Predict the 3D structure of the following.
Amino acid sequence: KTRQSAATNRVIGSSINSPEFLTGVISAINDLQDILSQLPSDAQLGVSLPQVAVVGSQSSGKSSVLEALVGRDFLPRGSNICTRRPLVLQLHQTQAGSDGRAREWAQFLHLERKITDFNEIREEIETVTARTVKGKSCVSPDAITLKIFSPKVLSMTLIDLPGITKVPVDDQPHNIEEILTDMTKSYIEKESCIILAVTPGNADVANSEAIKLAQQVDPDGIRTLGVITKVDIMDAGTDVRAYLLGERAPKLKLGYVAV
């Protein structure tokens, strides 16, 4: 209650154009997300909070995009589906210490302690996923909430979603593509969600699975940002500028970026 009141007070006591107002709004949104994440999906009453969802096929480079935004390596890696539960990543911008050093830490919603070794984040994600998701390649819609505090980040909420795959492997159900697609749509269909559609540079952006999925819920491309990864392995003779300018890719109001 104290934390929620402080966030609310920052909103009420600040000018709408001030940084304090924006910080207060984001803090209040994060407080609400914490509450909603502990409720069953059918008890959330259709509440839709602002967030940025990262969408892409398996091995498209989603993890690299997220880690670039945070400036640290902390996500599971591997050849199979690495993100097996949605990860709600709340970034909180903090002030550097009086000595100018950046003090960074993380905290899971299901754990009370602070984590300063970012390798522990990866281990905890893998541990809690293995404990709650049956099989080594199956997925679950139950989200993990992680807060990261750092002067190097911008305050925002990101959602890392399991990569879309078409062919079931190992112990995955035969309809794994449908399961993953429905799970992804449940996040990106909300009007308050900005979609980061991630496509690797060695794939045809015009036929990107992420773009196709985004178009189903955002047909006018108003809230979709195209992200092209692995541009260093694009086919010889391919001009990435043609994609960034939207000349060889579906039109998006937010455009394209290369990472």
Observations:
- Residues 57 and 246 are 21 Å apart (CA to CA).
- Residues 51-258 form a domain with the Rossmann fold fold (CATH 3.40.50.300).
- The radius of gyration is 19 Å.
- The first strand starts at residue 51 and ends at 56.
